[in-house]
Model the fold of this input.
Amino acid sequence: MTDKVVNSTAIPVQGRRGLPKPLRTLLDTSGLIAVFILLFIGLSVLVPDFLTGRNIVGLLLSVTLIGTIATTMMMVLALGEVDLSVASIVAFAGVVAAIVTSTSGSVAIGVLVGIAAGTAVGAFNGFVVARFGINSLIATLAAMEFVRGLAYITSGGDAVMITVPGFFELGSASFLGLTLPVWTMIGCFVVFGVVLNMTAFGRNTLATGGNAEAASLAGVNVRRLKITVFALQGLVAGIAGVLLTSRMGLGDPNTSQGLELAVISACVLGGVSLSGGVASITGVLVGVLIMGCVQNAMGLLNVPTFYQYLVRGAILLLAVMFDRWKQSRRAGSG
Amino acid sequence: MTDKVVNSTAIPVQGRRGLPKPLRTLLDTSGLIAVFILLFIGLSVLVPDFLTGRNIVGLLLSVTLIGTIATTMMMVLALGEVDLSVASIVAFAGVVAAIVTSTSGSVAIGVLVGIAAGTAVGAFNGFVVARFGINSLIATLAAMEFVRGLAYITSGGDAVMITVPGFFELGSASFLGLTLPVWTMIGCFVVFGVVLNMTAFGRNTLATGGNAEAASLAGVNVRRLKITVFALQGLVAGIAGVLLTSRMGLGDPNTSQGLELAVISACVLGGVSLSGGVASITGVLVGVLIMGCVQNAMGLLNVPTFYQYLVRGAILLLAVMFDRWKQSRRAGSG
Amino acid sequence: GMGAGSSLAQNDVKIGFIVKKPEQAWFINEQDAASALGEQKGFEVVRLSGEDGQQVLSAIDNLNSQGAQGFVICPPDVRLGPAIANRAQQYGMKVVTVDDQFLGPDGEPMAEVPHLGMSGYKIGRQVGDAIAKEMKARGWEPQSVAALRISNNELPTAKERTDGATDALLDAGFVSDNIFDAPQQNTDTSSAFAAASPIFSKNGRFEHWVIYALNEESVLGGVRASEQYGLAPDQVIGIGINGSGAAFAEFSRQKPTGFYGTVAVSSTMHGRQSADNLYTWITEDKQPPANTETTGTLMTRDNWEQVREDLGL
Amino acid sequence: MSEAYLRVDGITVEFPGVRALDGVSFAARAGEVHALMGENGAGKSTLLKVLSGVNRVTGGQLWIDGEPTVFDNAREALRRGISIIYQELTLSPNLSVAENLLLGQLPVKRGFLDRRRLRERAMSILEELGEGDIHPSTKVRELSIGQQQMIEIGRALLRDARIIAFDEPTSSLSVQEIRHLKRIVSRLREEGRVVLYVTHRMEEVFEMCDAVTVFRDGRHIHTHETLHGLDHDTLVSEMVGREIEDVYGYRPRPHGDVLMRLEAIEGRGVKAPVSLEVHRGEVFGLFGLVGAGRSELMRLVCGAERAAGGQVLFDGATCRFGSVQAAIRAGIAMCPEDRKSQGIFPVASVSDNLNISCRRFFRRWGGFRDPQRETANTEDYIRQLRIKTPGPKTPIANLSGGNQQKVILARWLAEKIDLFVMDEPTRGIDVGARRDIYSLLYELAERGKGVLVISSDLAEVSSICDRIGVMRDGELIDIVSRDQATPERLLGLALPA
Ligand SMILES: Nc1ncnc2c1ncn2[C@@H]1O[C@H](COP(=O)(O)OP(=O)(O)OP(=O)(O)O)[C@@H](O)[C@H]1O
Ligand SMILES: Nc1ncnc2c1ncn2[C@@H]1O[C@H](COP(=O)(O)OP(=O)(O)OP(=O)(O)O)[C@@H](O)[C@H]1O
Ligand SMILES: [Mg+2]
Ligand SMILES: [Mg+2]
Done:
């Protein structure tokens, strides 16, 4: 064990000196990435077992749910809206997938129906928000209650067991040492990074979030855009729900309560503006990773439960404050 | 189903004719009040035991926590900010009051220290938001974690018992058939109604929420304003927490999880804008009452647990949609 | 995986203690007791929380990273059993369950994982029996007594408890039409209060009430609602489950309230015993008994201090 | 002459990548109306924001009444008697007119808002502003932009400030409102206040001001203590650094077929059915007072709002556009009048703002956008319209008002469409750039496109358009051809009968 500690101090320090120039500039320009890198180095040095392959794999796995959903939540927030129903969608899609798989006996059908259920909820949210101009917080809060209720009703309130063994393999199928849920998360980051930055759709989303009236006068079909973004959110939450179910081996209607706040705060920590128009995929990635690392390290350090609350709160606050401070310093010195 | 549709078209038309003029105008101008009045009449007619003195008193008591805190949440939202830490403040203030009362033996000291603890948290939130320009969602999310942790740590994780009997009387002291918590709620509605509409402070809050830069350019001390509003929120949440502790007879660090969302949605249901600058105290009152009535009626009607989720979600959505519809009709015809 | 067996030096032993609700006094006591035992016997206890399946699996990964040889767990969902057992086996870790027993894919308890705990259903029955006994002692006619069942059907363990109490009451001759459900949205006092209020409003014709729920806090909420409605303490019998601060707070009031008693279970004993079982298994390779069932003790205003001391709460 | 009351001494202001002011010095006396002029991005607004404590200086010193002064925030400047009417509106949309007028100094009696005094003070100032028909309890968002601008002016007047600065106040005001403003400014002069007046309109300088200071690229070029003997062309060339003979530079050209014909269009804001034709190669003007319904009419045509009746014949085919997007695809696009609320995406970059609509022409790999070509396109327009920006990636909110307007214009100039509808296109744009924009419009017309310009600037509309439709109170009153369009005639038609 002592070996490991020495090892893990050595690596980053050595690595740092040799940092290539672009990385150093990055550190200087983006406060949050700097926070993350410092945090990561700090944890690697100070927390035994942190920088081990196993632990990093475990860490990645533990952020898959938040990370996957954060990619589309970023789109929703960029649009100037918010979606509180994601946790319910995860539960509902999981339960539906479990039931359909068990009754139909086909994994493919179960998975598809589960994902479709999530997408349908998302599209409905989008429809309500875009067509009737309902505040998305209220619309998705209503959906959060309603869909959680549906999850309880379809499952009878009890976790649904899955009888088809093929279903479990989904969640544990592994490639290059990472399992499908992790790959899905990585995939979502790539896809929505590209969507946000490289497509007109992504730029229109940002524009609409920045000034919806101007976007609509500039020829953006704001209504269709909103429905699409919410439907994507539902789709991704549905996928996450199905994967969670397969990983856990059961469709639990109670799962993931409070997930929506965790996802939203990871996004906001990553610099996504709640008032819309500002989003960055690296920011969200870093936001997710910061939160995951802190949680993981507290586990490794055996921080008592109650103090974990303090640490989480403090880290969250310090990270944003540091980011602000860097920004203002840059603005001041520039 | 068909019946209901016919009914809901029929009742307002019939009812409206016989209504006195001011009430008719009210119904026409404020969609949400109309929703509430219809709902209330409907529940009184359809739900046995709903319109009994005892049930109404029980209903009022059950909304005191949400109602009391909603008054200051309205101010925070009017400012264009949000406070997620209220539930933690309720728990923390309650635990502190219980401990201090028991150790000092004085109810007055206990109550004051409890309320002061709440106010301090609120002021700290305000300071972080106003001084460092941190997004209030993140700042208060951090506070929510941190303060909940403090509540656990001060109480040791277990409910704190109160040894001074005078403490219980606070929560059950009664006047004109209503207990202190209900009076407190009524008082808060009156006070913050007056503050919002009748003081420069209230108008400055709305102006800042509508356009913070403009307010600051016009000479409003935005920073002080923000700190004050958040401190008021902490104060009121602290009072609510102490009263809850006294009413329940124990300081429970676990209490009121998820309260923040209920409070915020009552406000938004009441027409308070999340983007700031728009708030109305009657709206918030009606929002709180609609949510309380629905919950109470479901209890009376023995609605099965899982279906309660559906009903809550549906009512929330329908209420806002009706409100929007009334508004757009008014705009169209006006 | 990690090598196991008696070759390990004693002070290298590290076990995990994963609980589903780390903020609850019950589980804190369990973990405290396990840590205390660890200090006494010289092994390390890593306290972790697993509030849902996701967190449990991360917690196990985490334990593996730290080189733990096994863990005690109270799972957030008993049906996670196969997944948890699987993961543990993958890492070569030993598992014992406490409080809630794993269910296998067939829906039957997983006998291969040693368990220590009380059956929720049985503890519920204990509550029901105690209520029935006190009703008889007070000379209440079953027809004139109503039951307030503060339910939380979203939580299977809660349902087991209230079902047990209901069955026991029915067996004792309670009128099933007189049982009223108050579904709470949370497991704390104020949500129970909110759920209970309309039930009293609606059923004003009953003079006597009995109240039960999954824990003490919820029963207390019901009792507060009964007081609010205007019922006197001697018109109400509320019996909780656990034996935590909430009950002690109520018993230490000057005047009796409708909160008649609680079925106390020794969380300390659970924590200590399960950790000891696991430790013995790791160090001496002796598998603990498949299922150890514990029972609760009725704690009332008259005997609470004594029972508290006996159970080490 | 009296001592200078306000002295700006070597002020320098820097933003990331931009030196907005570079050692600027000038002085203004009490009882003087001092014009500040310069191209878009010259630093005029920045200077005013230094006076109001919003912008921090990196060098130099401010002297007020002989005392060196530093402000940390707007409140301190207000207290010191400096009141600014900013270029962009700074109102709180959901508060009433009265509350907005007195924001920051709401009257209080025994701790409560004194509603009676609030209303009285508001009514008296509204009267003074010539906006007596606005009710003090109206919500500000229900007012037209011109009225909102007047509210801003009223707020500044209510401060009773010693130094009062106007940043392009007339860019969104109607003819009558401008008249009132002129009266107000001369009253301020008589009361012995220092008035700073930023504008791009030459005639206002010569009519209202006593002295003028010219900036270029953040540097002080020249201060004319008096306007006697100063001629128009000198001032222009000092501003833009080159000679401009005729800003409008009208170029006659032949007109082609009818491009768009409106037949009895009516809808919200358009009270009587409107019929008119715009030909290919024509620059058609729509003149009217604020609220005449010009914008509303074109919103109906361009798909931003549904018409209640009538039809649009475009390029020979009947169309009724359900959305702006449909209109753009068919070949009509509208550049909206209020750049802040309808035009810009404030946090997005200049490039994103410019390419929002036209990027569909730069697609590659089956749908992905092409950032290189977008940037190239942006750089093209930055050059053509002389947009002053550190680069295509700068957030548009960091640009000066006039440069933002140029970006929004470029958004539509880059579109492949047949009919360009420009609502107040040159609002807040400097003389040099105006000339560039006009010649771009002529060029479009020469290429056979149609151009429809909505403008409240009499000189502009009568100088650049081939035909001019005059609207009044939601009705099209008359269509006047260029040779008959004297300013007097147009104004006569536009004013209420
Ligand atoms: N907040 C800011 N951040 C960065 N650059 C800014 C900021 N505000 C102004 N600038 C830059 O400072 C320069 C001067 O801008 P300013 O607004 O003072 O111009 P102006 O003379 O008022 O022009 P206009 O006539 O267009 O209003 C411009 O190049 C502008 O891009
Ligand atoms: N959103 C709106 N709601 C209600 N009435 C409106 C709205 N917008 C404009 N109007 C009204 O429609 C009429 C026409 O306004 P419009 O903006 O088209 O005038 P305009 O001729 O373009 O003037 P300008 O652009 O110079 O302000 C006015 O009476 C105005 O008050
Ligand atoms: Mg300017
Ligand atoms: Mg207009």
Q: What stands out?
A: The pocket of adenosine-5'-triphosphate (ligand 1) is lined by residues D 15, 18, 20, 38, 40-46, 87, 388, 398-403, 430 (CB under 6 Å). Residues 69 and 236 of chain B are 6 Å apart (CA to CA). The first strand of chain B starts at residue 160 and ends at 161.
